[in-house]
Amino acid sequence: MKKTALFLGIVLAALLWVRAAAQPSAEEKAFQEAKILLFDEKWEEAQKKLEAFLQDYPSSPLVCQAVFYRAKCLGKQRGKQTEALASYENYLRCKDRNTSLVEEAETSIIDLAYDLYNRGTKQYVEEIEARLESSNRVIRYYAAFKLSLVKDKQAASRAIPVLKEIIAGEKDLDLQDRAKIALLRISPDALREVERGKEERRVRILKIRVYVEGQKEPELSINIPWALADLALSAIPDKDRSALRSEGYDLDKIIDELTRTRGSIIEIREKERTIKIWIDRE
User: N vs C: which end of the chain shows fewer Cβ within 10 Å?
Assistant: First the structure.
């Protein structure tokens, strides 16, 4: 009987401990109250609640989050952008910062800096420029897109290397398109250079077709990678080149024209046959 009573006492004590442990502490309750106000978009009330929390519980493990959410509240209120930006930077100095919140803090700083720049405080463009060097691609890309919008073309041009990086290396076509639009906004010439470079990187193919008069399909079709064709043509001895030249075929001229003039077709007509030679890219 005594053992049963002892057992029930232990169980009851355990249940009471679990119930007590499940109850939020005063600091947790204060923090949750602030977050509810924040989720209801009552920015000023939430800000005051968070400031009270930071004052009452300076050693709480929730302090870092409170700093972040206070910055968010400030950023949503008119005229408090400067204070919000400083508060986000305070969050980035927290030891217990969260990776996803760091990303949001950095992009929020970029937005706030852009807004302050547009309001006439030009030095804030430096906050955007600094994030072009971020190791986080989301932050780096976002900074480049935002910087492309500033009116100062010299400042905007600092985003060009990152925009080129996106166009060259990203598989996401939407990201590529956004980067192209941003690059066009800054410098149409820079976009043309990128497009030209991409075109040059495609494999060049030397194509030769021999058509017999009256036939639609070619009698002979040859496709050779230009690198190999150029090498083979360049290896032809001078005496053979001279012999061909005497018959009206100047190989050096043909190679030069094919290399220099993209998309042009060289036609050689011989009695009932026509030879077409051009370089294509695949």
Answer: N
Beta bridge partners of 225: 205
Domain count, the chain: 2
The residue among 199, 231, 246 that closes a domain is 199
Instruction: Please report whether residue 4 resides in a domain.
Output: no
Question: Which tokens go with 73?
Answer: 């509240």
Residues 6+ positions from 168 with CB-CB distance below 8 Å: 194, 198
Is residue 163 within 8 Å of 195, Cβ to Cβ?
no
> pLDDT category, 129, cuts 50, 70, 90?
very high
Same domain, 188 and 108: yes
Fill in the amino acid letter for 181.
I
Is 12 contained in some domain? no
Q: Is the pLDDT of residue 132 over 70?
A: yes
Q: Residue 12: CB partners within 8 Å, gap ≥ 6?
A: none
Nearest-5° Cα angle at 174, 168 to 180: 50
Domain range for residue 264? 204-281
Same domain (yes/no): 107, 209: no
Q: Are residues 60 and 83 in the same domain?
A: yes
Cβ atoms of residues 209 and 221 within 8 Å: yes
The residue from 175, 199, 223 where one domain ends is 199
Helix %, strand %, coil % for the chain, to 5?
A: 65, 10, 20
Q: Give helix then strand counts, H and E, for the chain.
A: 15, 4
